[in-house]
Structures are given as structure tokens and as C-alpha cells.
Amino acid sequence: MKILVVGGAGYIGSHVVADLCKKGHNVFVFDNLYSGSVKNIDKKANFIKGDINSENDLEKLFKIKFDIVFHFAALKAAGESMENPGIYSKNNINGTINLLNAMVSHDVKKIIFSSSAAVYGYPEYLPIDEKHPIKPINYYGYTKKVIEEILNWYGKLKGIKYAALRYFNAAGYDINGRITKREKTTANLLPIVLECAIGLRDRINIFGDDYDTPDGTGIRDYIHVNDLSIAHLKAMEYLNDNNNNLVLNLGTGYGYSVLEVVKMVGKITGKDIKYSIVGRREGDPAKLIAVSNLAKKTINWEAKYSDLETILSSMWELYSKIKV
Ligand SMILES: NC(=O)c1ccc[n+]([C@@H]2O[C@H](COP(=O)([O-])OP(=O)(O)OC[C@H]3O[C@@H](n4cnc5c(N)ncnc54)[C@H](O)[C@@H]3O)[C@@H](O)[C@H]2O)c1
Question: How far apart are CA 28 and CA 61, in angstroms?
Fold first, then answer.
């Protein structure tokens, strides 16, 4: 198939591109390289530099007749989205509307969209299933909610078929070592702990150790990026073979605490990870865990590589080669 991967130079997109190329698809990566790296794009894929905010770029791009679009391009820092909602409106909402309009104009009918657990907001019950109320507590999550709603309308009005995949905490690097450049600006826990292990940071701050969890630190559901990638390929098959849309959680159903992460990094790397316990952050729940039974039922997907040791070992493979 001829596949457009928007944001395919980024962290999750580049893993999916590698798997699509391995399956023999004709892959086109479209990315403005704001946070992505050309070096992570599989050599078999075609790369086109461009921006979803430019209707001109999209008009040129859609001269190619694509069978399906994977859409990863977005800004994703929840904190930043609260300080600067304008750039999140522009990139995540307007940019996606531009992309959808280009699809409609050029008769491309299928899209797989990177949504997020951030659409749910503060958990009203656990584990979170897809019926959980959608009440984002940050503007980033709101942009994902808006796009899910727009996809629903474009589905009804313009015959667009879509899969909105709500990822929990994406983590790890390709277990086959195909991705060589790390994410540089992430504020996520696991990369920060690995940065301590290689000496890029002195210590990590743990935001609260008095939560109602076994060791008092927050628990999150980490999903290996290879597992995410497999889900995307399965969602594509589903859209090819069915007339339904998909809205799916992608998580594991279990979680790990901050201290478990710190200890496991120590074990894998042999380094002493220093940490300080500081106050809780606003809006951080004790636990965030997904249930992905619907993904199991509809696309026969469940996490295979998402135990903490596999996730962190795959990250250490990449981080241990970084020269500090
Ligand atoms: N990483 C996570 O834990 C996580 C969790 C839930 C959802 N998501 C979503 O998954 C998607 C991919 O996330 P990621 O972690 O790979 O992020 P990333 O920043 O590594 O990748 C995003 C890619 O999109 C590109 N891009 C951004 N704006 C663009 C624009 N206007 N035009 C063209 N390209 C543009 C960037 O250069 C980058 O290569 C995002 O939509 C994100 O919101 C990520």
C-alpha cells in the first residue's frame, strides 16, 4: 500500500515507519522536523519535508495518491500547552483539520490518529476503559478530544474511516535497534532517569511519596513503542477490512511506580540513581492504568514487550551508546 506517515520522523512514528517498510509498503514520511530526526527514518521510506500548517505543502504532497494516512504530528507537552495554548491550537487542531481537508479533496478515506490517555483527565475509576468520561484537564488533552470529535463528524459527513488510538505512556526503543537517535526534549520519567544513568543529569525529582500506592509514589501504565507500532498495523488491517471506526485504549492493564522505575534502572545499568522527594504536582493522580480489552477484541492486540525490564533494557541499549 502507499502510506503517508505524518510525523514519521518522530519517536513513535519512526518505529511504525520501520515496521511498515519491513512489511513491504511504499511509505512516505511527511515531517517538519520540529522534534523528529531524519536519521530515524527507515532508508526504504521516502522523506518529504513539510508542515501540516501549510496548505501549499499539503497540496503538493497529495499529488501522490495515498491509500491511508497515519497522523503522529503534534505538540505533546501538557505543561507547555497550559502556558501556550495558541501553538497547540494551531499545530494540533488547525494542522489536523488541514490534513483532513486535504484527504477529503484528494479522496483519501482512511486515517489512523494518535490520540492520548490525556483525553480522560483525572480518573473517575480504574482501570480506565473507553467508556470513561472524556474530561481533559490540560489543553493538550483537549486538542486530542477535539480531533476525535472532528474525526467522528468527518466520518459521518465525508466518509472518512478512522482509528483513534489512545496511547498511555509510550516508552522504550526498538528491540531490534533500528532507531538510533533518542528523543531530546522529552519531560517523561523514563528518559529522565536514563539521563541520570548516563550522567546528563545529577538526580531526579520525585513528585510526592505519600500517594495511596504500595511505595507511595505514582503508578503509570507504560506501553512499549514496539507494542504501539504493532497496534497501528493491526488497526490499518482492520480499517481495510471493515466499515467501522475504532477508538481504542493502548495500554497494558498494569503499572509501575516511580520508585520501581528508579530501582530497575539501577539494576539494568549498574548505576546509582540519585533522587529527591519533592512536593506533589497539581493534576497528578496516584494511579493511571488502562484496560485494553477492546483492542484485544477488535484487532486482536495486547502488549507483548511492555514489562518494565524489557522497556528499560531497550532504552539502555540506545542510551548507553550516547557520548556525554
Ligand atoms: N509519546 C507519548 O507518550 C504519547 C502518548 C500519547 C499520545 N502521543 C501522541 O503520539 C503522537 C506522536 O508522539 P511522539 O512521542 O512520537 O512525538 P514526537 O514529537 O517525537 O513526534 C511528532 C513528530 O511530528 C512532527 N511534527 C510536529 N508538528 C508538525 C507539523 N506541524 N507538520 C509536520 N510535522 C510535524 C515532529 O517533527 C515529530 O517528528 C503525537 O500526536 C502525540 O500527541 C504520544
Answer: 9
